[in-house]
Amino acid sequence: MSQETLKVRPTKIELIRLKSRIKVAKRLHKVLKDRLIILSQELISLIREGMSLRSEIHSKITRCEELLADSLMLTSPLIVKSFSRARGEETEVVIGTRVVAGVKVPVTEVSRRERSYDPSIYPLTLIEAGKCYDEVMKDVLRLAEIEESILLIGREVSKVRRRVNALENILIPRIEATIKVLTMKFEEREREDKTRMKKVKQMLEKRRR
Amino acid sequence: MSSKEYKEDQLINYFLKGELRVINSSLPRRRKTLEELLKEEYPYVLTRDGGAHMFRRSELELAKELLQEKASQLLLPIYLELRPDLSETVAVVDDPIAIELISKLVKIERAKPLYLYPIHLSELRRRASTLFLYLISPKTLTSR
Fold it and tell me: What ipTM describes this predicted complex?
């Protein structure tokens, strides 16, 4: 903790001004700290969600690959290609933003128009594989949203933390130390005045006698 | 007062105002009801800084399901007011319909105003991250 003091004139007005300055500094510190807590919580939950989603995607992709391999035994790669193209056209992705304590982070929404496929052209395993890949795509988009949010929030967290630390470790202790020094000086001055007055009183009494 | 001290004073005030501006500029120009938002193709509200706050349809539907007939009265986004004058990090909700929804989402008892602590906020974020916005109470400026 810094014990440095500010270079100020030892006057009562200066002390009053310092007291009001510390009030504002503490309020700013609280505002920043609240924001830091909220952003850190958001960051931690996003990191956790991102990690679990990533492993989920890996296991889903393995399952989808198996389904695709099964369907390729029943149909030609050309049909698989035309099927995947048709499914892609039915997907709609909306990208927007949401705000978390002053930070704009992306939001994605995936919607699909489901339609029925002729099982004589497209085997059921291929349709199943298509549905599986839809799920993967949805999760990948969500993961992209999470990872971008982590980056944006992380940047803001480090910025806010720097300010909180500067206030907590430098500015507030410095003002507090200055207030302490000034208060001590005034108290000492008061004590000096009292002793002086006592002395004067004693001298006056001596003279009267 | 020397110019250096004057600058330091100004800097603290500037940062305080800046923080309030950062959080409060993302507040919506006009809040919309849940009913209005559900009718829209892409549910969103415009914010004061010219951006947009988008809602997830699944979360809107969850709110409708939880509130049932009161759903049409709910104004979104819900404001979670941060109160720096309180010693702990706490968000306050005043709107009675929002209180009902949040108490059902977070599974806490209803109270007016409703005080939400970080543990409640993380649960709320997990279940409905787009339904609410934080704001810093103007009391932080007036109670100087």
Answer: 0.82
